[in-house]
Design goal:
single chain, alpha/beta
Amino acid sequence: MYTQQKSFIVLLFILLLFALFVQEHAVKADLTPQKYINIPPSNPVLMYEFNKIAPFNKKSFRLEDQPEKWRSAMSALGQQLELAKVRSVYFVHGTFVGNDPAETISWVKQYVYPELSPEYEKTITNFIKKVNDKTYADVGNYTDGYVGLFKKAIGNKIHCENFIWSSANYHLARLEGVVCLTKALAWDINQRVPTPGERILLIGHSHAGQLFALLTNFLAQSPGIKDLRNIINFDKVNCQDNKEDIANFDECLQKIRQVQLDIVTFGTPPRYGWGDGNYRLLNIINHRGKEYTGGSLEGVLWTKDGDYIQQWGIAGSDSFVLQKEEENKKLDILLGDGCNINSWKKNAEVKMRVPHYGKTLLVDYKDNSWFWWNAHKTLFGHGVYTQYEKMLFNTQLIVDELYLDSGAGELSTK
């Protein structure tokens, strides 16, 4: 009898320790910043290898100039998207490749010409975006040509949009970006009467994933959202998209709640928490190796371990912005450290690769090389996702994981 009681006490003690561990590392579905911890991921993780599937003609980006096998494969995937009731696909770029990454407009208004008109603002931002598209092309950047080819390749029946935001590297810019994304989605939905089960597919590179995370928190009205509203007036954000606002911000959110969201992130660093809601989340990360953690500095020049920017673009890595320092410090409390080198060093030591939310696919995109300039060529492994020749493989990944029950198709798993 005494032995049974002793065993029961030991078991109870073990269960108590386990409960404390779970509570310590529990993932809240809200605005709470993600914690950087070095333990095996609790969410589903699969490993894949890049498979060409069909050749792509990089000498031309016109659909008619692509090989028949490539066109047929993309067309079949488009049919699957239609069957799944995907009505719109939004491509959202990440940091530094947008239309005002250095906050030029804010600087001009504050120090040079406060009366700058919206027309001139748009002229400046359009010019900046064109320069970025010329500089980066399809490396870590979604171009209009890429989105246009994708739309034609999947059958030209699904609305596809290249959403552009400032891409500045700090909290406030991402917050303003999600306000404009929310308005764009609501305007799109307002053009038709949504049918039951209708879906919108959001595809985002890098910190575009932070915009998506914020959106889910707004839709869920997560704790902390009210505090965000005290920092910025969402209804006064200038989106420069030539679309008339159909309603205020809250009514835009209500329209988005009428549809289901499928969210895919490519190379998004784990930063913000995600809200509860009617959406599915798939994270795709360039990764090499059998471990679930990020790489070491020794291999960065030939991208030995995959996407180093995804690994390093974590809390503390934001740019310092003099004009909006006060607002960003307030946002640090809600969204985690923005510009803080000491915090970044501490977080980077953990080498956390897999986020705490959604399903994650660790994909070896085979972009590593023994040549030192490979880091420049691939943006430290961060620029491979948006390249034209990866379009078919990425689309196959998305369809297989989100819209098919049959499994991995022509993709190869490790």
